[in-house]
Design a protein that fits this description.
seven-stranded antiparallel beta sheet; about 20% helix; single chain; 21 strands; Bactericidal permeability-increasing protein, domain 2; 2 domains; about 375 residues; alpha+beta
């Protein structure tokens, strides 16, 4: 880091060698071309918790080219101060030593504090709430590598129920090596699948979901009634990242559809459903945070009618109506599912971002740019 330092005016006094005259005055100065060097390292404890430590080596701070000036209050003291070389390299060296002692810890704290806040958010982001249960991401550090002029962190990436945390039986795939982009953040399908596994174990999503009125063939039986959908899963949902596409697959789910009339549920049909939801991702940034937002949309849908409480149905009409209902349900989920926060450092933002989906992996690649560049430090 290269900086310019300004020293504020300070009062001082001295006496001549014989002690006959006391001189008072003020001193001020500037320094240009100062340099601060430090090394950031990430230290892991036995539980995989990371902490950034910034260390400046001896001589890591150089005050640069310094100029100090003085102005005396008494007549004759100006000449005496010049003769005594009051403002000389010794005082500049003293100022440099004080800055080394005082400035270096301040700069280290300015670097460490936001990075450690970001690391805590990365390791333990806010839990996702579904109904009465919450699901937390265990993203503790597995390893840290400083090779190839990069800092590469590998994290666990496993969701667990807060109330009933269990280790997943799933096995994460091998991750690709990052390319030459400044910032690469990767997720395997293992992360989402551990969430779906936990949701399935806790029977989340099997409660009834009310959808605002949508005009379908059910409107004949209950005009302008909200539709209620209850789902029972035969297996957890399955996330895949392949060939530039992300999808969530639901197979052989039992879906009961009814209409809500005067607080009374009127059952209408029971279906066995297979569906695939596509997932698009986008990066949302503000001056203080960055989030990855997932947007669901219906890719495919098939059904088998098991029970009809309202008589014979035209299956083509039923398929069209169920497609509309599930699309509306996904729109509801898009509003409720929170985004995934990305740790950010003040003054830095992501630019030219791109999402890459292949080999069971989702990667966010971006360049790092200064949000508010500054090269002046005032002391």
């Amino acid at each position: 880091m290269i900086c310019q330092i300004r020293l504020h005016t300070r009062d001082f006094f001295f006496r001549d060698p014989l002690g006959l005259q006391k001189c008072t005055g003020q001193i001020w100065g500037t320094a240009k071309g100062g340099r601060f060097q430090a090394m950031n390292t990430l230290e892991l404890d036995s539980d995989g918790n990371g902490k950034v430590v910034t260390v400046s080596p001896p001589g890591g701070f150089d005050i640069g080219t310094a100029e100090l000036h003085h102005k005396m209050d008494q007549m004759g003291c100006e000449a005496l101060a010049d003769v005594l070389h009051l403002v000389n390299s010794a005082i500049i060296d003293l100022v440099g030593q004080q800055l080394q002692e005082k400035l270096v810890p301040i700069v280290a704290d300015l670097v460490d504090t936001p990075l450690n806040v970001a690391l805590k958010l990365l390791e333990k982001p806010p839990a996702l709430g579904f109904g009465k249960e919450k699901f937390a991401l265990d993203n503790s550090f597995v390893s840290v590598d400083y090779g190839n002029q990069r800092i590469t962190h590998t994290n666990k990436g496993e969701f667990k129920s807060v109330g009933h945390p269990l280790e997943s039986s799933l096995i994460p795939p091998a991750m690709s090596m990052p390319d030459n982009r400044d910032f690469v953040m990767s997720f395997s399908d293992y992360v989402a699948n551990t969430l779906f596994e936990s949701l399935y174990a806790e029977h989340i999503g099997e409660s009834q979901v009310k959808i605002p009125f949508v005009k379908t063939l059910f409107d004949k039986q209950c005009p302008k009634c909200p539709i209620v959908i209850a789902v029972k899963f035969a297996a957890p949902l399955q996330q895949t990242f392949e060939n530039g596409h992300a999808a969530i697959t639901m197979e052989k789910a039992m879906m009961e559809v009814g209409a809500l009339k005067d607080s009374t549920l009127m059952p209408m049909v029971t279906l066995s459903v297979n569906a695939v939801a596509g997932v698009d991702f986008k990066l949302e940034q503000t001056s203080t945070n960055a989030d990855i937002k997932a947007i669901l949309s219906l890719d495919s849908f098939s059904q088998e009618l098991l029970i009809s409480h309202i008589g014979d149905l035209d299956m083509s009409d039923l398929t069209q109506d169920m497609t509309l209902l599930i699309s509306t349900l996904l729109d509801t989920l898009n509003k409720d599912v929170p985004p995934l926060p990305i740790p950010v450092v003040a003054g830095i933002k992501l630019s030219n971002e791109a999402f890459v989906l292949e080999n069971r992996e989702l990667r966010l690649e971006a360049d790092l740019v200064a949000a508010k560049p500054s090269n002046v430090v005032v002391v």
